[in-house]
Design a protein that fits this description.
alpha+beta; about 350 residues; 10 helices; 16 strands
Length: about 350
């Protein structure tokens, strides 16, 4: 007996709805503040993906109690494209049927602001929301649709014609799942501020503030320098070391400051997520530093790659052994030349 694939998909989705609502920690990592913060990370990460392929320039996050709004200027959601499901657009399917790939077209690299989660997807956010309203410009029309607790409450309709651009998602956290927990303002502000340096040039709004940094990790390091040390970590007449490179399917940015007689303070990220236990990318950098006999006081490093894998109990360590040699080969000459310059005697 053959079973219609759409019927089977609906049955599986009902099981997912039950699982998400009964065991939210499996999907969000927590049913507390950390869990509700994943709503922001998921929606902002989707915009970061667009920024990496030059399809978005800004994202804005607004918090008001249990209400979260995320607005971008990207190409919009495909409300104008049909899905294989009858009378449902591709965009509507995104919000009502979890996908099995990292993204719609399985593109890479894909950014996640929390290394513990590989992205829950829009449908899971819908399931865990008391209500969700989506407005998105696509093909000259502003589309609007309402969702709640995993289902669509109305069909998608075009409410305006014009040349607008972008998407706005407004949602209310479901108190049946998360109780009175709310996103922590200070945690999100710090993460979004960092993201504006990791993705240099992207404008990130957070309530009444806007973060945008053209200096990348160099600017972030200069700020950390002022907070951690009462004196500049770089020699007068020499700027800090800073490179931004595109390698074989890898984007790499490194900024380093000063000298240390003991060890370096290291801050590292992979695909937008903190890697406090470091990993393969930092190992490649340290191989170069040992070769040139330099121990910087402060190192900042961000790598964006295809299919990153994380290790450790909290998934806070990048496990990608193949990139060590790639990073070593890319950084050896720039670091060696910089070290030679700062070692030159000055009179």
């Amino acid at each position: 007996m053959l079973i219609d694939s759409s019927i089977l998909e609906d049955v599986l989705y009902k099981d997912i709805i039950h699982n998400v609502r009964c065991r939210p920690g499996m999907y969000f990592g927590s049913a507390g503040s950390r869990g509700v913060e994943q709503f922001v990370y998921e929606l902002v990460s989707n915009v970061l993906d667009l920024y990496l392929v030059s399809q978005a320039t800004r994202v804005e996050v607004k918090l008001d109690g249990s209400n979260i709004s995320v607005i971008d200027d990207g190409p919009g959601l495909p409300f104008d494209e049909p899905s294989e499901l009858e009378d449902i657009s591709l965009a509507t399917k995104f919000f009502t049927h979890p996908h099995q790939t990292r993204s719609r077209d399985n593109h890479a690299p894909h950014v996640h602001m929390d290394s513990m989660l590989t992205g829950v997807g829009l449908a899971i956010l819908n399931i865990a929301s008391a209500q969700m309203t989506v407005q998105s410009w696509r093909s000259g029309s502003l589309w609007k649709q309402h969702f709640a607790k995993g289902i669509s409450l109305s069909p998608a309709i075009a409410i305006e014609r014009g040349s607008g651009r972008g998407t706005q998602i407004d949602l209310t956290l479901d108190s049946e799942i998360f109780g009175d927990f709310r996103p922590r303002h200070d945690v999100l502000r710090k993460t979004l501020f960092e993201a504006s340096h990791l993705f240099s040039g992207l404008k990130i709004g957070f309530n009444e503030e806007v973060f945008c940094c053209l200096g990348g990790l160099k600017a972030l390091g200069l700020m950390m320098n002022g907070l951690l040390w009462p004196f500049p970590l770089f020699s007068i007449g020499h700027a800090p070391f800073h490179v931004s490179l595109c390698l074989d399917k890898i984007s790499l940015e490194v900024a380093m400051f000063g000298n240390s007689e003991t060890s370096s303070h290291v801050f590292s990220w992979a695909n937008g997520a903190r890697t406090p236990e470091r990993g393969s990318h930092v190992s490649g950098l340290f191989q170069v530093l040992r070769a040139v006999r330099w121990t910087p006081a402060l190192c900042l490093m961000h790598v964006v790659m295809h299919e990153p894998e994380f290790a450790g109990p909290m998934c806070t360590k990048l496990h990608a052994p193949h990139i060590r040699q790639i990073i070593y080969d890319a950084l050896f000459d720039p670091i060696r030349e910089y070290k030679a310059q700062i070692d030159e005697p000055r009179f």
